[in-house]
Amino acid sequence: MPMRRDRDLARRRPRPNPVGLSLVKVLVIGPGGREHALIRALAADPYVTDLHCAPGNAGISRDVTTHQIDAQDTEAVVALARKLGSELVIVGPEAPLAAGVADALLAAQIPVFGPTQAAAQLEASKAFAKNVMAEAGVPTAMAMVATNTQEAAEALDSFGAPYVVKDDGLAAGKGVVVTSDRAEALAHAQTCFEAGGTVVIEEFLDGPEVSVFVICDGTHAVPLAPAQDFKRIFDNDEGPNTGGMGAYSPLPWLPAGFVDEVMDRVAYPTLRDMESRGTPFTGVLYCGLAITSRGIRVIEFNARFGDPETQAVLARLKTPLGGLLMAAAKGELDDDEQLHWRPETAVGVVMAAENYPESPIKGAPITGLDAAAALEDVSVLHAGTTTNAEGEIIVDGGRVLAVVGLGADLHSARAKAYAGVAAISWDGAQHRTDIALKAANGQINIAEGTH
């Protein structure tokens, strides 16, 4: 069987490795579903020969060796990378980036894929990101920064309903309230103020949302296939915001030339502005976009791969991921790089714990994982999981798993993903039933004149 795997990997090589690598030792930092997707993609890269994750989760530990360290402890991360002889460290979550893990690795002369603490402000501070976009001429929503209740009230009245109120700092995708209830909007702002923060209040953007991940080396950039995620906890986009309940890629309803426009109007101007500030951006520039009646608008930037979009996007990527990310880390990306993709569509459905997103109930044993993973064109990626004393895999977080199906079209990919979901169970498990449904039924419309 290993011989066959080697032949399969060899056939999948689309071209010589872009940075001339033969053996690459990679360490992935992070505990979640995004990191499991990265691990799976890197394991399929013939240039990656040694693969570790810290801290990982119960699913990741089935695939590679995991190390129990605090991902935000810069000294611990550097020490582990040195111990393993890592030639590339990939930082998954936003919190370690904001804590300066990439800076510490660079100081230790260890190649890292992920922005410095200063560059990660594009995500860590929405006010900073708005300033960059203003200077770079990047189209985005009009916004005001408020530091107290009176300023917040004035900004809300200036823009009118629907109201959009964002915590200025990191909030794991859950610091945003979009509501037509002025009192609710003001209450969210007050909660942020009481926690010692500020808020950004924006005009509401109409139109469908799109996520585009752009691999950057500080100067050059290569886009991945667009995806769409689903932030609300319940079907029909109802209930509170979450970190994301599912995603799909590619998006058949996007207009031709969409990605080129994102690169020309959003990604490259942002990279140029960051470089001019002396804080070049290396890593993933996650462009959260709205396709409005007035054209593309940036909703937000993130400084890392999005979760759960990564699970769907990387399920289709054929280009070796390790070589691509190493090229970015070393400043050797080629703007004209043509990535290779599987022709299938990917749909990922998140299974969440009981009482998520408020106070997830942990500890329930999970059954059916092997049965789901055995289904054709279905993969199960772990996020909030661990093992108990009996060796059972149990719930250990809010978003527990992402089940990804690959199919010839959205209907087929949805059917496979939900077949995998149906095979898995635990007490209180919840998931949305409508991931990618509107797109599959051709119900997503883009206003004329937006492109």
TrEMBL record:
The keyword ATP-binding applies. Pathway: Purine metabolism; IMP biosynthesis via de novo pathway; N(1)-(5-phospho-D-ribosyl)glycinamide from 5-phospho-alpha-D-ribose 1-diphosphate: step 2/2. PROSITE patterns: ATP_GRASP (PS50975), GARS (PS00184). It is an enzyme of class 6 (ligase). One of its GO terms (molecular function) is metal ion binding. Residues 130-330 form the ATP-grasp domain. One of its GO terms (biological process) is purine nucleobase biosynthetic process. This is Phosphoribosylamine--glycine ligase. The gene is purD.
